[in-house]
Write a structure and sequence with these properties.
Layout lengths: L1 E3 L7 E3 L21 E5 L8 E6 L4 E6 L8 E5 L8
């Protein structure tokens, strides 16, 4: 079972063995060695946002998705942290 994030950016489960076509969108190629990625509605607008971080650098990045008509907005927090929880 896997996630389908192509359903208007609302996750649904894929229960069949069909392999959907995936498009690759590079959001940010600046952060090297990310320790993990979390999806969630950070700004409570109904859309999935992305949070990622790298413990070694202490950097956390939040990518806000404002809807289908706009690109991702990057919010960066360079505070010290111990990872994503």
């Amino acid at each position: 079972m896997s996630w389908n994030l192509c359903n208007n950016c609302h996750p649904t489960f894929l229960t069949s063995c069909a392999k959907p076509a995936w498009r690759c969108y590079i959001i940010d190629d600046d952060l090297h060695g990310a320790d993990g990625v979390k999806l969630g509605d950070v700004n409570k607008d109904g859309w999935l946002d992305i949070v990622t971080g790298w413990e070694e650098s202490g950097e956390t990045r939040i990518y806000l998705f404002p809807g289908t008509s706009h690109g991702m907005k990057i919010r960066q927090n360079k505070g010290r942290g111990r990872g994503l929880y």
